[in-house]
Design goal:
It contains five helices and ten strands. With 244 residues, it is α+β, with helices and mostly antiparallel strands. It has two domains: 84 residues, Phosphorylase Kinase, domain 1, CATH 3.30.200.20; 144 residues, Aminoglycoside 3'-phosphotransferase, Chain: A, domain 2. The longest helix has 18 residues.
Length: 244
């Protein structure tokens, strides 16, 4: 099934224009039930999508601003790989102060999800010290020596507590800010991992210092290299990971 599945949200549900982001999905702005919305069509499993939908509902109940799943007419939160979500107003963070607000919200997410289960099919960075694959990551597909460099960076996180991480909060396009709130969007790469991966932000907004910042920066670069492997961005990120 493809975008024809959108009809499950009503006869008046229509696509408007494609949106940037969603590297593993086709993302569009929509008009659904008379309001603006966002649709994401991909190949994730039902278990994967149910995990994300449940997380959004949980964070919303906790008072955070996140895109909420809009159910189909028969009450499903997704159908045939398609998820329809509320549109979040706002713009990206631009100043150091605004990025500090983002860091505060990320820490709230981390605090609230210490007991949240792992996303189905995913593995954390420290689990990949002993595993080869996990959803979008295949360390065996990387060039000789690359996996060893990534694992050396992740080994410095071993033994630390884990929680849900957003997965890509340093991208300003994944933040929608207003004067009143900070909304985190595009949870396509969220999973359970060490929170440091979320805290390498512009202006060092999370306030990491010295070795703590180096550990987080190396682990984050290694993660993005592995999860995006095959494109120019991944090659650039791998170049930031020190050789073993």
């Amino acid at each position: 099934m493809g975008w024809e599945t959108l009809g499950l949200w009503g006869e008046d549900a229509v696509r408007i224009e494609p949106l940037t982001g969603g590297s593993s999905s086709d993302v569009w702005s929509l008009r659904v039930q008379g309001r603006r919305a966002v649709g994401r069509l991909g190949t994730r499993s039902d278990a994967d999508l149910a995990w994300e939908a449940g997380l959004m509902q949980y964070l919303d109940r906790a008072g955070l601003s996140v895109p909420m799943p809009i159910p189909t007419r028969d009450g499903r939160l997704f159908a045939d790989g398609l998820t329809v979500m509320t549109y979040m107003e706002g713009g990206p963070p631009r100043t150091a102060g605004e990025w500090r607000r983002v860091a505060d919200v990320l820490r709230q997410v981390h605090r609230l999800t210490q007991d949240w289960p792992q996303r189905p099919g995913w593995r954390s960075s420290t689990e990949l010290l002993h595993e080869e694959t996990g959803t979008r990551i295949d360390l065996g597909a990387m060039p000789p020596g690359a996996a060893e460099r990534c694992r050396a960076a992740w080994a410095r996180l071993a033994g630390r507590p884990t929680c849900v991480v957003h997965g890509n909060p340093d991208n300003p396009g994944n933040i929608r800010m207003t004067a009143e709130r900070v909304a985190l969007i595009d949870w396509d790469e969220s999973h359970r991992d060490v929170p440091d991966l979320d805290l390498v932000l512009p202006h060092n907004a999370a306030g990491l210092e010295g070795e703590a910042h180096d550990i987080a920066a190396q682990a984050s670069a290694a993660w993005e290299a592995a999860v995006c492997w095959g494109d120019d961005y991944a090659i650039k990120r791998l170049a930031e990971v020190r050789a073993v």
